[in-house]
Specification:
The complex is a heterodimer of chains A (319) and B (427). Chain A is built from 14 helices and no strands. By secondary structure, chain A is an all-alpha fold. Chains A and B meet through α1 and α9 of A and β14, β15, α11 and α12 of B.
Chain lengths: 319, 427
């Protein structure tokens, strides 16, 4: 028997279509790159610093957790790097180093690992971290104050703050083209509307995010903003403005679609996305906060497990 | 291997192979020097036996190693029994392995020829359950679960396999005769011939109602044929036989026809052999032929760490030895180069939803795997539809975490089955 060849014995199916977790996360990062690059072009070295620190610290937190929990090393799967990148995209280029480290700590250690690791996190780790940093150090996310020292070739007011405090009249200076091309202040990778849309479409076509969520989220934003705008055009900005400002696009394509904290069944995905969009505009227009995306996403994350119970009955199920 | 398309948001469409002219030439595998037969049930050396080492056997002779069990094999060759031993298969199944040295002079056994003047169920049961393609005669004449419909499927339920399509195309007369005999011995009048794809012409006279089955995987799965072609849904955990529908392969029906027509039990098995680069070749070999002999004849070389699969890529079973014999229900043999073997991992489910999109019976697999991985089989069955699974393997095929979901499902069903039968036994 010694000479007999040894064959690999395993179980069906013997084919795999090549999907992989790494592929998924690396492609999401690639799709986010245009928006990040524009942010770097606008804000220069400080933006490079924030992005680099955020990505590398997220990876190091992940590595630390791997060692602490005696699990296999998972930094190569790209998830930690993606988390770091998304966190950097949401924050202003002037974010101090300790806040970046705290943010990625919350993302990776609290948001991801304490909830049970990849696939088990109830909330999107990045959104959770942004919300916590925002609550703890309010000024860091006051884009007008944070970006005070920048004088780029554009209107340097944070559009959502402008409309909130001064009404629709204050935003006439923003054209749709400006918003699409990133000529607005905001998070490092959150302002380049066109880049985010193209990245999102790429991810949808490739099947790396679930289109149902993005599309219903954007529709939710659009319709709610439209109704508000119809009711009081001088107080509430129109739908296009809401689609292209703040975290709407990064939220619709990169944050609300996070795998583990969002539903996988068709109807729940639509409800989840639409609810996120509606809540976003409600908070912006009549809530206490300037932008509503972060709290809207945390809320829909919270109801996700309930929503995902709405699913087609399995064939043959005996009730 | 089928890869994911660039357009990942559309549900992949995976199709069964359709028989084309390139498959039509069959390679006849010459008889090997020795063959192995696996008979159901373990071999207990103490038990009274009808068969011993040194016995000479003839082609078509019924070999029942144990006087206490009904299980038997039909000797596919003439020769001498060289060994009888026990063999352990998958999932706790045991067999009695009988090896026979093949002699040059072939002689045919005539017991069946004498018996087959009567076309009855007992005669068929006594000789023909191990026909090529396997004839599930145990379902008939069961007063608790009467069978009222027979579905003969003229295709195969796995990708790349064209064995039964070939039978339908080339052995219409045997099939027709087989259908008549099936009708006589089973007393079932409603016989459906299900054929893959659109080729419905030319079967009007076959003696069965002809229906076509879509070619998109897994439409040929018996549960899917029940649902889409017969319009009947098999309740979770049940089999089609519980609803009075029995599935038989076209090959077995053709073999049944030929057996009664010629008074000789057919002993050659038709198989689709899939080579390392995915090319298909139909071959005919005696049942019991070691698969290495088939690979040698076809010039397929195997190296260390390659994989040998009995059956197709989605639902087959891999074996660890190239001495494994061709079984009555081996419809395909596949070899996979070690470079081509996808690995599985213990990476957790990331909740991506790919499996949900592809599962034909809407099982919440993203939830199910969490319970299966933790070994909570009861909850998996009660809340997450474990028993609705029709075992198509598509979920594992697409899972980016490469979780062996399908294996988890089979294991869970097996474990639950063991627990339940133990509970029944102990009241
Ligand atoms: S094997 Fe997977 S995809 Fe196929 S029916 Fe079962 S759970 Fe669904
Ligand atoms: S395909 Fe795999 S990783 Fe994705 S939801 Fe299903 S089991 Fe989880």
């Amino acid at each position: 028997m010694d000479k007999a060849k040894k064959f690999i014995v395993s179980h069906a199916p013997f084919w795999h279509n090549g999907n992989s977790v790494n592929e998924r996360y690396y492609h999401i990062m690639i799709a986010a790159l245009p928006a990040v690059l524009l942010g770097i072009k606008q804000y220069g070295i400080p933006a490079v610093g924030v992005v680099a620190l955020s990505v590398s610290s997220a990876i190091l937190w992940e590595l630390a957790m791997n060692y602490l929990t005696h699990r296999p090393i998972t930094i190569a799967d790209g998830n930690a790097a993606l988390i770091g990148l998304l966190f950097a995209m949401a924050v202003p280029a002037t974010m101090p180093w300790w806040a970046v480290l705290t943010g990625t700590f919350i993302c990776v250690v609290i948001g991801k690992h304490i909830f049970g690791g990849i696939g088990s996190n109830a909330f999107n780790p990045v959104v959770l971290a942004v919300a916590m940093v925002m609550v703890s150090w309010k000024d860091l996310f006051d884009f007008d104050g944070a970006l005070l020292n920048y004088d780029l070739d554009m209107v340097m007011a944070y559009p959502l703050a402008a409309v909130k405090h001064f009404g629709v009249g204050a935003i006439e200076s923003f054209s749709t083209a400006d918003l699409l091309l990133g000529r607005q202040s905001g998070g490092i990778g959150a302002t380049f509307g066109l880049g985010l849309i193209l990245g999102g479409i790429y991810l949808i076509i490739r099947g790396f995010i679930r289109w149902e969520i993005s599309v219903s989220f954007l529709l939710g934003v659009f319709l709610t903003a439209w109704i508000f705008n119809l009711a009081a055009p001088d107080r509430f900005a129109g739908p296009t403005f809401h689609l292209l400002t703040g975290y709407t696009l990064i939220g619709a394509f990169f944050l609300a679609t996070e795998d583990s904290s969002s539903p996988v069944n068709f109807i729940p995905m639509l409800i989840y996305g639409a609810a996120g969009g509606v809540l976003t505009v409600l908070i912006r227009n009549i809530g206490a906060h300037v932008d509503g995306v972060v709290y809207a996403i945390l809320t829909i994350n919270l109801v996700n497990p309930l929503l995902d119970k709405i699913r087609p009955k399995a064939v043959g199920k005996v009730v | 291997m089928i890869r994911k398309s660039f357009f990942g948001f559309v549900k992949p469409r995976i199709e069964y192979a359709l028989l084309s002219d390139q498959h039509l030439n069959i390679v006849e595998i010459p008889d090997p020097k020795s063959i192995n037969l696996l008979v159901d049930g373990p071999f207990n050396p103490g038990e009274a036996t009808l068969l011993k080492e040194g016995d000479t056997v003839k082609t078509g002779q019924k070999l029942a190693p144990s006087t206490e069990k009904d299980a038997y094999a039909i000797s596919p060759v003439t020769g001498t029994v060289t060994s009888i031993s026990s063999y352990a298969g998958d999932f706790g199944k045991f067999y009695t392995a009988v090896s026979i040295d093949v002699s040059d002079q072939e002689e045919f056994d005539d017991q069946f020829e004498t018996a087959c003047v009567e076309t009855t169920l007992p005669v068929a049961r006594n000789y023909l359950t191990q026909l090529p393609g396997k004839l599930p005669l145990n379902f008939f004449n069961d007063s608790e679960k009467p069978i009222n419909t027979i579905v003969i499927y003229g295709g195969d339920n796995d990708l790349l396999v064209t064995t039964n399509q070939y039978i339908v195309k080339s052995r219409t007369d045997d099939l027709k005769h087989g259908i008549r005999i099936l009708n006589q011995i089973s007393d079932v009048d409603h016989i459906i011939m299900a054929i893959p794809g659109e080729f419905l012409q030319g079967y009007g006279h076959i003696g069965a109602e002809v229906k076509n089955v879509p070619i998109e995987y897994p439409a040929a799965n018996p549960f899917m044929i029940m649902k889409d072609t017969l319009g009947r849904i098999v309740p979770a955990g049940r089999q089609s036989e519980d609803l009075g529908v029995c599935f038989i392969t076209a090959e077995a029906v053709a073999a049944l026809g030929s057996a009664f027509q010629n008074g000789q039990i057919p002993v050659s098995k038709l198989m689709t052999v899939v080579g390392k680069n995915g090319d298909q070749q139909l071959v005919s070999a005696r049942i019991g032929t070691p698969i290495s002999h088939i690979f040698d004849t076809l010039g397929i070389t195997l190296s260390e760490k390659d994989r040998i699969i009995l059956g197709g890529p989605m639902t087959g079973a891999s074996v660890w030895s190239e001495d494994y014999p061709v079984m009555p229900d081996t419809s395909a043999l596949m070899v996979q180069d070690k470079e081509m073997i996808p690995y599985v991992s213990d990476y957790p489910c990331i909740n991506c939803g790919e499996c949900i999109r592809i599962c034909p019976v809407y099982i919440p697999i993203n939830m199910l795997v969490r319970f299966l991985e933790a070994g909570h089989y009861e909850e998996a069955a009660d809340q997450y539809d474990l028993y609705s699974c029709i075992e198509c393997g598509l979920c594992s095929f697409v899972c980016p975490s490469k979780i062996p979901i399908f294996q988890f499902i089979r294991l869970a069903k097996y474990e639950l089955g063991r627990v339940n039968s133990a509970e029944e036994a102990h009241g």
